[in-house]
Design the sequence.
């Protein structure tokens, strides 16, 4: 499933630049995103060095890097600094800080100043409306809705994302794109396209399984039978 075979853009989600390189060379991704969880998971110690290496390796990919602070003034300073390192950087700003304070004031300041933003950790339509009201019509931005996490609560994320797309279009924010985040399964790509959102973030394990999309069910069934049989043979189990 290369870029030419789909309408929606795929962004890799993680902090392993070798994996990004692999998927970029395969021609299946249009960008990538990272966050503090992934930075810790992959042992990133020098954040600026990591970002500068990434933009040097992938000058043509969109990439999103998150601020690290929790207070709004420091978030804003960090966002301006990170943004200055490359034109293809979108700075991730969570929609609230850990105290639940809205980040809309700094989103407005940064967007009006021309900083490309990725507004992240969005779960509700009220949060979407807050982001839409704060973003500039003239500056590129992403609104990242954590669809998989919404589904984990027992709610269907599709109506929320569809309505978010409508809110962005009605604003209008011609340079803002809705992003499906926290992807759990490959079928989410199909669902995301149905909602009209522009981008979906995909973890490395799911990206490796992209060729499964479009495979016949009969072929998929046979592949599973073979996989189970190979596991039996290699384990040495007997009845």
Sequence:
């Amino acid at each position: 499933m290369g870029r030419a075979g789909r309408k929606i853009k795929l962004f890799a989600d993680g902090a392993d630049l070798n994996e990004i390189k692999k998927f970029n060379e395969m021609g299946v991704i249009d960008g990538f995103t990272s966050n503090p969880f992934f930075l810790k998971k992959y042992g990133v110690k020098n954040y600026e060095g990591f970002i500068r290496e990434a933009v040097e390796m992938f000058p043509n990919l969109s990439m999103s890097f998150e601020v690290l602070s929790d207070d709004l003034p420091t978030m804003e300073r960090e966002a301006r600094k990170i943004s200055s390192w490359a034109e293809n950087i979108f700075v991730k700003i969570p929609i609230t800080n850990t105290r639940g304070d809205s980040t809309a004031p700094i989103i407005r300041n940064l967007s009006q100043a021309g900083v490309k933003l990725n507004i992240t950790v969005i779960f509700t339509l009220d949060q979407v409306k807050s982001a839409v009201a704060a973003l500039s019509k003239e500056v590129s931005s992403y609104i990242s809705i954590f669809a998989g996490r919404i589904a984990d609560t027992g709610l269907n994320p599709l109506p929320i994302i569809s309505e978010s797309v409508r809110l962005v279009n009605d604003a209008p924010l011609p340079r803002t794109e809705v992003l499906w985040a926290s992807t759990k399964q490959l079928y989410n790509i199909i669902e995301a396209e149905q909602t009209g959102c522009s981008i979906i973030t995909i973890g490395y394990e799911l990206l490796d399984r992209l060729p499964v999309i479009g495979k016949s069910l009969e072929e998929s069934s046979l592949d599973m039978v073979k996989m189970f049989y190979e596991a039996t043979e290699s384990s040495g189990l007997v009845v």
Q: What stands out?
A: Strands lie at 9-13, 31-33, 62-66, 89-94, 117-122, 141-146, 176-181, 199-202. Residues 217-235 form the longest helix (19 residues). The chain has one domain: 3-213. The domain at 3-213 is CATH 3.20.20.70 (TIM Barrel).
